[in-house]
Design brief:
Alpha-Beta Plaits; 14 helices; Rossmann fold; homodimer; 17 strands; 11-stranded mixed β-sheet; Dihydrodipicolinate Reductase, domain 2; 432 residues; alpha/beta
Chain lengths: 432, 432
């Protein structure tokens, strides 16, 4: 039997400990699958005294992950520290320079430095594997990097943040406000004390940037992602969505358009009958549209020790079996510079909700403004008459046929100028 | 750049031509992904004159696939001939003996000869890849063989035959009979002239046998699969299922039980809210329950040139990149002999529909017989009174709590002995 693969794990939080437990508990099966033992030899973490529910005293201990990266006692470097800069970035570079393959769960790091790190990996004859970095336990990175290369991918869309999906699911089921559901999510450990990164869509954007690169053979380009979170979604929007046959999900979407590659993260109305609409609670899901295979959807747990640990171990196994697939599926030099399609050129349908002042001719005014910009309406709903709680306004909901974001913004600005609205209109993009 | 990988394709039907088209159309992208060109150099088929919608005159032509398998002009043998015996079996053996890796779409071949062929592959230092053999375009073989090895898999269940799912979907949506929907499926090309292999569950069983081996690390054991098709499902069953909150799907299920590994294919009641219940028409889906990752579900096209061609090309790409993963995920000698759990030991809930003679005390008699065998009833439905069309009988539907198949059969036999039934009772297993 071949030599053991010696693993060093940097970061002993949820992901690192999750992987460590699996490597211990499934050691025999992993040896059979890899054709060689996979053995953790070293760990890196600052705090040696913390109780992690597992004995780590048998491993070489490094306070500095950069030092572990260069140690002759490890063959592969597993990075679960997190953060786009600092120790994670330094240690991954050090491991690659030392000719050691890297497995990382760090989406922020790759979203920011992916192109640079892929080049460095290649120069040193190794690769970076990152299944745990997007959609946790769902093997969608491998699907894009390996299984689907025969296809021309046209679109990737996904629910990739369990916190947001949990909040939206509860808001829908119970008619609660965003703030109430967020509080519950924090109590249950589904949301951080500062939830901005999750609920404002940045976490999803990082994951989307990685999937986009793999799907379209382009350099990671997280700066060009349009990002909008779920904090502005109201119970009324969810109720209206339900009546119109939709659910609201925070989606990350990357697609080829005639303008280039469009990447966007925002609350989205999806038909109730779609696969993504069925995904409730903290689950994640990714749909891929590809030619000639068609549409594939993967659903599963996106976070937690079990899900991310499973993904880390899958990547380690590949490397133990001798895989050395280029970080983003092809040589770093062969990744194209992405042509960005700006969100103003997005084409699609919209849900618009406005609080309209109850004055004669207001609705006619709105419809006229839309028509002037060439926007056709699929439906108009006016719920009840005057809403007492908003002081004499009437909620009006429009569903538009496909139009461009630029035209829509102009029409909404025209309508605002007419002084018939109370507050700002709500606009949610529709994906069919 | 490394040498080209020279591909020989045996069988120029849907799958072979599907793969050939992709290899031509995506040649540049595949070269970038593989780091070397992937070039078809030879094809094998008996009929040279048939129009296949693509020019195949540029390839070396073999009438005998066994000859192509041994040709020095190919590095990898792609088998899309089909059939468990004969030329497919002979040619795959010849390719392996010549030290050539094999990609095959042939579930019947592997379901029958999987263990033998895996050993032969290993002896010759190569492997058999078979992503197209189960669930077509869905990369579930790779997920089990590579991504999920860190997990202890407890259950695999799937909708793996598009013909059956199409028929059941239409029966449900339109209240039509099995025979009517089968006719339509044949007209649309979704079902063969002789549909037995699909509708009686044998196709699903072959696919299940392969997933079972990968999931549990056991030798392929298709002989121990309990198989029951969908031809006995009636529109009334689908209507009752709907009222009770279920859909009926033909599932292949493999699970660990205290008795061993249970493998079964049968019409199954699944809750409408489950992921599998959302899968309609010719789509396929596979759900995997694994510890610690949790439950993963994959949905996508299971058949057709695009789906199977995509899977073939994914496998070829892996081999071009140097992968040599053991056929069933671990050394053939390390595959365990499966301990079979017979269907009579199956534990679960049941839907029972009976045509009960409208005589005093019939219902009480049935309930008593169930109780005598220790079977608890979750619900009893008696729809309408006397059904004129069945000549004075009343349809009675029972939903049982979990019980054993053996007990249920005994109870049904007791009830039949009481002479209160017209015809045989319908029994459909429930999966929650």
């Amino acid at each position: 039997m071949a030599n053991a693969l010696r693993v060093g794990i940097a970061g002993l939080g949820t992901v690192g400990i999750g992987a460590l437990k699996i490597l211990n508990q499934r050691a025999n099966e992993l040896t059979l699958s890899a054709g060689r033992p996979i053995r953790v030899t070293a760990v890196a973490s600052r705090d040696r005294t913390r109780d992690r529910g597992i004995d780590v005293s048998q491993y070489l201990w490094f306070e500095n992950p950069v030092e572990m990266a260069g140690s002759p006692e490890i063959d592969i470097f597993v990075e679960t520290i997190g953060g786009a800069e600092g120790p994670a970035h330094d240690a991954v570079k050090a491991a690659l320079k030392a000719g050691k393959p890297v497995v990382t769960a760090n989406k922020a790091l790759l979203a920011k430095h992916g192109a640079e790190l892929a080049r460095l990996a290649e120069t040193n004859g190794v690769a970076i594997a990152f299944e745990p970095a997007a959609a946790g336990g769902i093997p969608v990175i491998k699907a894009l990097k390996e299984s689907l290369v025969g296809n021309r991918i046209t679109r990737v869309s996904g629910i990739m943040n369990g916190t947001c999906n949990y909040i939206l699911s509860r808001m829908e089921a119970e008619g609660l406000s965003f703030a109430e559901c967020l509080k519950d999510a924090q109590r249950l450990g589904y949301a951080e004390a500062d939830p901005t990164f999750d609920v404002e869509g940045f976490d999803t954007a990082h994951k989307l940037a990685l999937l986009t690169s793999l799907a379209f053979g382009t350099e990671v380009d997280s700066d060009s992602i349009y990002v909008e979170g779920i904090s502005g979604v109201t119970p009324l929007d969810l109720k209206m969505a339900d009546e119109l046959g939709f659910r609201i999900k925070l989606l990350g979407v990357a697609e080829r358009t005639s303008q280039g590659i469009e990447q966007r993260v925002h609350p989205t109305m999806v038909p109730k009958t779609s696969q993504l609409a069925q995904v409730m609670g903290v689950l994640n899901a990714v749909s891929i549209q590809a030619d000639p295979v068609g549409e594939l959807t993967f659903v599963g747990p996106g976070a937690g020790a079990g899900a991310t640990g499973s993904a880390v171990v899958g990547d380690i196994l590949d490397i133990a079996r001798g895989a050395n697939v280029a970080t983003f599926g092809r040589s770093a030099g062969a990744l194209e510079k992405p042509v960005r399609a700006p969100i103003r050129q997005h084409e699609g349908g919209y849900y618009i909700r406005m609080d309209v002042k109850d004055v004669p001719g207001a609705a006619a005014r709105i419809a006229t403004r839309m028509a002037e910009r060439g926007i056709s309406l699929e439906s108009i709903l006016q719920k009840g008459s005057r809403d007492r709680s908003t002081g004499g306004t009437v909620p009006v909901v429009l569903i538009t046929y496909a139009t461009s974001e630029a035209k829509l913004r102009e029409a909404l600005s025209d309508i605002a100028g007419d002084g018939v609205l109370e507050g700002d209109p709500q606009a949610i993009r529709i994906e069919r």
